[in-house]
What we know:
The structure is a single chain. The protein is α+β, with helices and mostly antiparallel strands. The chain has helices at residues 5-18, 28-35, 91-95, 116-125, 128-152, 156-166, 173-176, 179-186, 190-199; strands spanning 37-39, 46-48, 56-62, 64-70, 76-83, 87-88, 102-105, 110-115. The chain has a 4-stranded antiparallel β-sheet. It has a 4-stranded antiparallel β-sheet with strand order 2-7-4-5. Helix 8 (179-186) packs across helix 9 (190-199). The longest helix has 25 residues, at 128-152. The mean pLDDT is 94.
Amino acid sequence: MFNNQQALEKLMKLLRSVRPKFDLPMRLEYFFKEHMDEYDPVPNEDLVVRGRIPLFAYYIISGYVYVTYKNKEGQLRVKYFYAADSIVAFICFLDRLPSHYHIYAGHHTKLAVISRASVGLLFEEWEHMRSFAYTVLIEDDRFRGEIYDDLMELDPVPRVVEFYRLNPCLLPAVEARLDKWIARFLKLKLRYLVKIRQGLGQ
């Protein structure tokens, strides 16, 4: 049972924003209340392990989540950082396939969790929600990809400034301890990232 009404209202607002003219089921909010749970992961907890079939999808109530993958050279990289009011799941969750990504919880993070079994029940009750679920995940990935492309067009200093504007939850850096991942994400040398951030008073 999910009793965080404020988070539930934000989740419903987020879903409506994906396709404003799409009629979400009137009982969808009640379904989430019945089938979602609130979860407080420990910092850097594995939410999804790369190579395994994801069993849960997540909505971030507070805190952050980050997702890593291996590039063609076999190097670990961050795909995205997710802040509060974000849905964290990939198509592999819906298709019940092994994940290409490893998903970690951040510090001071609170999540709403729904299982693949519950999502299956949702699709049984409202078949049209299946295609909508795919749209939600595809559109989110496209949107984040566009933000990243815009970020990479900036020079290093404004790139770092904009990154932390978008992800204030990753400060203070001494607590998050993600400099290695952030530097790779922003395609900057680690010492250069730290120097820029220190120059910004962070």
